[in-house]
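Subject: complex prediction, re-run

Hi both,

The earlier run crashed halfway through, so I resubmitted it with identical inputs.
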Amino acid sequence: MNDVIIDARDVCYRYESGLSDAVSHLSLKVYRGEFVAILGRNGCGKSTLAKLMNALLLPTSGKITVDGITPANEDECYQVRRSCGMVFQNPDNQIVTTIVEEDCAFGLENLGVEPTLIRQRVDEALAAVGMAQHAHSSPAMLSGGQKQRVAVAGVLAMRPKIIVFDESTAMLDPIGRRDVFQLARKLNREEGITIVWITHFMEEAVQADRVVVMDRGRIALEDTPRQVFSQMDKVLALGLDVPEMMKLSARLVAAGVKLPQGIMTVDEMAVELCRLK
Amino acid sequence: MPIEIKHLTHVYMPGSPFEARALNDICLDIRDGEFIGIIGHTGSGKSTLISYFNGLERAKPGTVFVGGVDLGSKDTDLIAVRRTVGLVFQYPEYQLFEETVEKDIAFGPTNLGLPPEEIERRVVHAMQLVGLDPSRAKKSPFDLSGGQKRRVAIAGVLAMDPQILVLDEPAAGLDPAGRHEMLELIRDIHESGVTIVMVSHSMDDVGKYCDRLFVLSHGEVAYQGAPAEVFVHGEALNAIGLDVPECAKLAKRLRDAGFDIPMDAYRLEDVAGYIIDNIGKGRRGA
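This time it finished cleanly. Structure:
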């Protein structure tokens, strides 16, 4: 299959101090250009999977192939990291310089890219995340959402094919959260970058192409958001939440209101109810 | 032990190019036994405001009274105030430092110079309040999960026996189940007789748990009142970067489409009830 960009086959990962596998016999395919959300309670192995995707960790057993490379040695790990960028939860932990554009250039400088090309890529990346006017600012003067956008720009400047966002909106306020999420969607649609979006926010997950729910290192559910969230009891039992409209829908259906399955948004609910009145 | 704030203004880095007015002529009061929500986007002044509640900052323009005591006065014993008003910062688990859970919780009361048996009693009580199993007392706090660590940090503040507990984003970063547990825990603490002030980004959470809300925007109180009174301003809240609960949004859409749903309905149970009434009526009319 040509369009599989991440292919995990029976992957296990156990930390040195771990009593059990953090990721356990997990198989997952991510397709080129897809926007996949990964959900699951704290400690279910989401972040470990993310680190396996960009070769920060290598499987204890099983195989993971990223953009055609199955990393085994250091060289291959670097190649994987170039095609698969990562944005973490805490913006303050991933900003290393005192000027926004220098931070953005950090990765390219380390690769020994030619300065004029660095200039061009950094300008493009900062423009793409809407931070061009802050190029000369200190990251310390930015809001959390703006810092995350700078972190995304730093990853973008490396021209990755995939970006893994590991709870990148967890520490942001609603505006910052929306901005960073919309940015990921834009990169997905307009630049064709494959996005793996790890989150605790169901309202983000409902907008993904596909939802993968993890539990104790394995995949518990995997389908379109509508199909996944329709299994309300299962989803709740996995320590997650379902969209508010799905809960309302269940309540109304129980009271005899004839609603179709899988209503997730206020718009859908309003349309259906107006039809019934 | 009420909190009364009058005409409070706070300016960061005055006289520098980065001068910023974080709070502007804030007036608010918090009564005994309330569960208050403070809401606002980043930079709206929430965290600055709560640092005045226990005298971490001294009001220059304006006054802050806690239990009738003026925190701005030089004669005020701020140590006593900080015993009364417990502050739990964002991500408080990063402040844990002791070898064991019980030592960490005992740190505050030990510094108060309390007798050992009183310290012991407080540690046990605080652990119980936050739902930590006694078997964890001798464990290292660093071996616990994130949610459990946060409970230890909150227990450390509760061990000071505060009458008012102020929490800055207590559910941030937790998964949905952990979030729910944390909020239920705060409700239990409230029911044990502690006044709660909770800073939050989530309208859903404050709508579910709080008696009264203060919405901050650009350092000012933009809206205040019971959640239902605040959520009526849906569009204005959107304009300042906040959202109303989904059911409040739906209720408005349906009202606009001719459904008979009161302006103050925002809870799922209530909105569901009104929808069923409306649809029933439609059928009978048909």
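Chain B has two domains: 3-227, 245-286.

- K.
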